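Support request, please re-run this one:
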Amino acid sequence: MSLEGPFRTAILFVALSAILHLLAPFVSGFDRDGVMLAMALPLSLLMIWGLAQNWRWFAYLCFLITGIGGIVALSFIWSTNPVPAWIYIGILATNWFAAAVLFVALWRAPPVSEV
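Re-run finished. Output below.
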């Protein structure tokens, strides 16, 4: 596992999103919606691990997941559940920043391996 690859910035944004997901139950008073947000934590940890492996195919999958995760967070910003809107805004921002960084990293040609 290496944090030296092309996906290191995306790993940072996914980790920030994971922290916000972990924080949600505490700021919501362990309400159902906050606990449901915390259930996304294993997926975030799996994404961090896979991106740290520098697997390009996995980065494509993470690009889709972070983009969709941002859309889901956007749909909950104005909800009336006990999770504060700033948690959803933070998740939205970190997911879309991760998707943008992954897009840029994936847009570049894959590294050529020398034999």
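The mean pLDDT is 93. The two ends are 22 Å apart (CA to CA).
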